[in-house]
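note to self — DONT lose this again. spent like an hour looking for the file last time. sequence + predicted structure for the chain T wanted, 300 res
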Amino acid sequence: MRAVRFHEFGDPQVLTVEDAPEPHAGPGEVRVRVRAVSVNPVDLKIRAGYMAQVIPTTFPAVIGYDATGVVDEVGAGVTDVSPGDQVFGLAAQGTTAEYAVLNAWASVPRPWTVEQAAAAGLASSTAVESLNALGDLSGKTLLIEGAAGGVGSAAVQIAVARGVTVIGTASEANHDFLRSLGAIPITYGPGLAERVAEVAPDGVDAAFDTAGSGSLADLVAIVGSSSRVVSIADFGAAALGVTLVAGNAHAADNLADAARLGSAGTFTPVVQAAYPLEKAADAHAHVQGGHTRGKVLITL
């Protein structure tokens, strides 16, 4: 099968399309004929070698952690899908290829395109995992730092669907975009507390940091308690008493929740750009450049 692999750590140009052995579904897994994958920040970190101490890499390695496609192999014990079903989900590793094995998945909601399903994998599961870590926020106000990105834009929509008032930080160029998702937009950077107070004079109840831009102490001060702040991007969170959501312990449930909202029309994954498999390095360079609105994809 064709796959995007890398034989050493480095910049996007270490990614090459080459022949690789096909994986097969084991117990509790499904194999899909991949139609598209998303490029996630963790992919960039793994490719560059920044995660080598945490996630060991055996070369040559296939890049990618999520995918959407058509099921063509069902492992022992799997009863909720059959060959021919369209699913989106997560893998232990190695999805940017013609075939990938998923260990958590959900059926693609009818309203979604292939590209939207690809954009929903890791981003929506991480958004749901993080929002759930903050508890029931219905009727409350949530501040999302980095609200225009893949996880941020998913979190905005999911939180709004749960009855949460969302304030989202983004560059001014993305403010109309955030309004279209149901958020109150403000800019990020120095003076954040003052800008939050202008749009939420009664304060905010919780904060979700998706950006890792160094604002975590400010978020804690704005909310008033580190117990009501979570981050997926600031590895100094523990020093401030903030929960670092570093994984998807409830991935299957998270994906099912995202799919349910997709079917209801209250969550539509956002796609900024899509690149063919042969341009995988360009897709990585796009994400590495920052300021991505929603997700960048690689299609097959």
